Amino acid sequence: MLRPLFAALFYFAFWAFAAHAADLSDDTIRKSLIGQWIVPKDSSDYSDFNSHMVETFRSDGTYTAATFATDDCQKILQQIDAKWSLQNGVLTSVYPDGRGARDQILDISDDKMTLHSLDDGTNYTRTRADECGKPIS
Fold first, then answer.
1. pLDDT at residue 19 is higher than 70
2. What are the φ and ψ backbone dihedral angles of 10, each rounded to 5 degrees?
3. Buried b (16+ CB within 10 A) or exposed e, 61-77
4. What are the φ and ψ backbone dihedral angles of 47, each rounded to 5 degrees?
5. What backbone phi and psi angles, to 5 degrees, belong to 18?
6. For residues 68 and 77, is the Cβ–Cβ distance under 8 A?
7. Phi, psi of 8 (to 5 degrees)
8. % helix / strand / coil in the chain, to the nearest 5?
9. How far apart are CA 1 and CA 11, in angstroms?
10. Alpha-carbon separation of residue 121 from 67, 118, 135 (angstroms)
């Protein structure tokens, strides 16, 4: 009995976010996207591994996700570089091996971004950060 209610609430919340995202122009999103972002603890995709990850979007359309061993950002465990583009609120990332990811940007502000993966259907968030993954307050 509660399952239909939760499903209805989920769909309402998703479409409310999507309607808001439709109000955001690609130019506004693009300008807000540039910079460093981290995975906050309350994001659905947070894990021990990506708790030390810094995602950097550059204005030239390049992207880097660097995962560090510790909070001091001295040792990189993994670095992934990609090209990104934005069209109709959909962020598309293409990796060197040709694989890609597509995410609808549902909301973006100076300090937080909410995305919906068009690949696996999950919603997740990012928080703006400095170069070493510390949240900017």
1. no
2. -60, -50
3. eebebbbbeeeebeeee
4. -150, 170
5. -65, -40
6. yes
7. -65, -40
8. 25, 40, 35
9. 17
10. 24, 6, 26
Q: State which amino acid sits at residue 8.
A: A
Mean pLDDT of the chain: 85
Chain centre to alpha carbon of residue 126: 5
**Residue 13 pLDDT > 90, yes or no?**
no
**Residue 109 pLDDT:** 95
Mean pLDDT, residues 100-128 taken together: 97
Token representation of residue 66: 């660097």
Q: How far apart are CA 37 and CA 69, in angstroms?
A: 17
The token pair at 60 is 């030239």
**Reported pTM:** 0.80
Query: Do the beta carbons of residue 65 and residue 79 sit within 8 Å?
Result: yes
Q: How far is the CA of 99 from the CAs of 55, 68, 93, in angstroms?
A: 18, 23, 8
- How many other CB atoms are found less than 10 A from the CB of residue 120? 8
Q: Residue 133: its pLDDT value, please? A: 66
| 137 vs 116, residue with greater confidence | 116
